Amino acid sequence: MGESLVDRSVAATDGPGQRLRIPPGPAGAVDLMTVRRDPLAFLTRMRAEYGDVSSHVIDERVYLVNRPDLAHRVLAANRRNYVKAGTPDDQMLTPLLGRGLLTSDGEVWKRQRRISQPPFAPERVIGFDGLITTATDELLAGWTAAAAGDQPLRLDHQLSGLTLAIVARAIFGSDLTGINERFGEAVDVLNRFMGHYDPMEDSASGQEARASFGKAVGFLNGLVGLLVQARRLEGTEGRDDLLSRLIEGMADDAGPAGQRDLRDQVVTMLMAGHETTAKALTWTLVLLDRHPEWARRLDDELTTVLGDRVAAAGDLAQLPLCRRVIQESLRLYPPVWLLSRRSVRDDELGEFHVPAGTLVCVSPYILHRDERFWDDPARFDPDRFTDRRSAARPDYAYLPFSGGPRQCIGRHFAMLEAQLVLATIRRHVRLALVEGHPIEPEALVTLRPREGVLATVATRDG
Ligand code: HEM
């Protein structure tokens, strides 16, 4: 981090006799570039040196909350006091997502959540199982063709393409054949721009990035507009895709504002619904490569339960290890590694005072590696997620999908998808990561392998 972290629990005064404790943290302002270079190391050191609630100054004072019960207060118990508006995430995402479910607050959010919730219920999302395994089979057919040439694949990119195709089909109910490639490219530009977003950046490359971003948004808006219009003309009756559900839910609002709202919702689902799942799958495959003993156990489970059958949602109850492997991967490498909120009014977190307007962050990455709740936290051990061991942990010690009313609406979809994709990949191909290629986490919008992941593919019988 460069500068020394000196324990300086600051006490401010607010009127005669009233002492308001500000959480401890480094003396003076923290250098933004040092934090940016390695945010995970920064968060880890803050937790180690200052404990459950710490604070540091970068432009403004930022609170870090590292205790499950306090995370619960921010995300659930006192959630009305902690909003998304004005957080860095909000500033970064709003130019693309508008006021969709991920970025809205208050009554607007409540209405959007009510409309969007039903198709994400567990009993509804299981109907997407065939779509998920078909898309995975198509990807694997391409891989096995490539396997003949022995060329390594960029596994992380391949998985992003897959999860994008899956969520797009779930939303639009059809393949986007013909525009798929252009669509993938536009989404790629958006992901890259958001990953490196810097509102102060005014260099030529910054301007260039902004111009490509503008073009990609224009393309996506045009495409989403057309697909929405087409669905309206075709009618939504009898269709079970997410777009039809959203159109029906928002039927009383067909004016321009409603159109804009629908666009924001659809783009939000597309963006929130693929990169996270792709990263979860990427890390899972990396961890299985590093832990062959667990990979073998998983393969045994899949062979016993599935034989040569295609996995379906109904099989998942018989595949507990498949689920735990993904849960453990989400613990070690939570794709959403930081949650941020801004306080509306004054509050207290433990013994500390939170003035109105404070930026308050909770890091799933840090909570997931806290020795108080996780024995030998760096170790990969999917059996941490047996029912018995999970029940022994406090709520909010495990937050890959956040918690409270704003937790991930797509979590059942994501878990279904991750398990079915993992099962299908492991049943059909053998992946070997390219040796010597570095794999380190990089915390951008999502937690991803900095240099990507290279892997060679062989068929199971090959
Ligand atoms: C492993 C995959 C996923 C992870 C780790 C993940 C994680 C999260 C997290 C942590 C949040 C809360 C953010 C916050 O509180 O600031 C969130 C919200 C959200 N996620 Fe996911 N997500 C995943 C998959 C999906 C999928 C598949 C979809 C949709 C198809 C989706 C759609 C959303 C939406 C719309 C929100 C905003 C919910 C609201 O504020 O009401 N996510 N996700």
Largest sheet: 5 strands, mixed
Strand content: 5-15%
**Rg, Cα atoms, Å:** 23 Å
**What general outline do the C-alpha atoms trace?**
globular
Multimerization state: single chain
pLDDT averaged over residues: 89
> What structural category characterises the helix and strand content?
alpha+beta
Number of distinct helices: 18
| Regions with little confidence, pLDDT below 50 for 5+ residues | 1-17
Percent helix, as a range, is: 40-55%
Report how far the terminal alpha carbons are from each other.
48 Å
**What hetero molecules are bound to the protein chains?**
protoporphyrin IX containing FE
Secondary structure: number of strands: 14
Strand order of the largest sheet: 3-4-10-7-5
Textual characterization of the structure:
The chain is an alpha+beta fold and 462 residues long. It is 50% helix and 12% strand. The protein contains 18 helices and 14 strands. It has a five-stranded mixed β-sheet. Strand 3 (53-58) and strand 4 form a beta hairpin. The protein is globular. The protein starts with 9 loop residues before the first strand and ends with a strand. The relative contact order is 0.15.
